[in-house]
Amino acid sequence: MKDIGHLTLWYLARTLVILAYFLPTIAASRYRHPKQKEILFFNAFLGWTVVGWVIALRWALKSSELKE
Q1: Mean pLDDT computed over 6-18
Q2: Rg (CA), the chain
Q3: Which stretches within the chain are classed as H helix?
């Protein structure tokens, strides 16, 4: 029974990390950003760097681009 608890916690933690990693992509999709695909690729390939993740998040939330 103890192993099931550890396994469940492991999958939950892994899922949360993946969701946090793709937060810029999720935000772009949620706000219907016109460049969702570009943000997805940028996030997937450069999101592992903190700077790349922050840039992707700012890009996804940038309101001036949404008005174009």
Answers
A1: 94
A2: 15
A3: 2-21, 23-30, 36-46, 50-61, 63-66
